[in-house]
What does this fold into?
Amino acid sequence: MINLKPLKIAGVGYCIPETVITNDDLTKLYETSDEWIYSRTGIKERRVVSGNETAIDLGFKAATQALEKSKIKPEDVDCIISAASVPPQLYPTLSCTLQAKLGIPKGVPAFDLTAACTGLIYALQVARGFIGSGIYKNILIVASDNNSKITDWNDRGTSILFGDGAGAMVVTESTDGVDDILSINISADGSIGQLIYTDMPGQNCPLVKPADSVGDGKIRMNGKEVYKFAVTTVPKYVEECISKSGMTSDEIDYLIPHQANQRIIEAIQQRLKYSDEKVISNIKYYGNTSAASIPIALVEGVEQGKIKLGSTAILCGFGAGMTWGAAVVRLREGIC
Ligand code: COA
It folds into this structure.
């Protein structure tokens, strides 16, 4: 066993765009109904960027809030990781753009990590490795995606689900010896990768034999199989992560899951035998905001009095790849 330095979750922030698209609005695009969508997903509305607003603007606001809460100044950040699957530009990466916008010094490493909706948990595990080994001390994690830009708005099987939003977390070396990560695990299974995919839009080089098809850059999904994957894999995985933490599920205060589908959230809740008060869900208002959904649910949960800080939580996510992950964490006072 490697002895890692303890990690502190020092600040968390979020940002959601103003523009609301309700289920009724979607009936203008195709045949559907609020009842159909809500009963199958728990979603009533979602937020999307509009005009020139992008995931950079949302990520900037979420990161600024997380930095303020952490009391870490931009000049003291020594690594930036963006959990970005749908950034506005493939490069420069979202993390590089945010480095300049936030006034984080030149030279500080900045990179994007793509693990779709599990991105936040993946980034937390990577940050834990860096901090635990002493390579970096103050890491900014930003999860911000422009899902609405790659959604096929003619496809009623996918466009009902996704929304835009951003979340951010500042993690630092813990100076009081207390580790805020009680257990964490990340996983992937590329053999079922085609359950959710987005082909890069592209073209053929005019000098070579063309490929049979070029990507259209839109989200494609086998919803039924993704649903089955999630309800069979995630609840068991969450239980294993809790057991690794040395705690029992009763001792953990909250479940803050990735917000993909209310029925998937309920499957995890039932497995843990949690009352509704212990489960944080805001999918009704935001839909699936990919890797941003966990920090959004956390901070909003605190703002709405559903989460009391000075507590513990199990975070869990899953998404394209397929990827999945979970972490039992300590939520200190003042982090959001
Ligand atoms: N409104 C009305 N009807 C719709 C519809 C909509 N928005 N979307 C699909 N339908 C129709 C289909 O065309 C199909 O009709 P048919 O039987 O005549 O062919 C029928 O409803 C059933 O479609 P299906 O795709 O099998 O529905 P479902 O019960 O699996 O529900 C999802 C679809 C997307 C809600 C569900 O599969 C799901 O939530 N999966 C998980 C997806 C997810 O979480 N992805 C992100 C992971 S990070």
Observations:
- The chain has two domains: 7-173, 181-331.
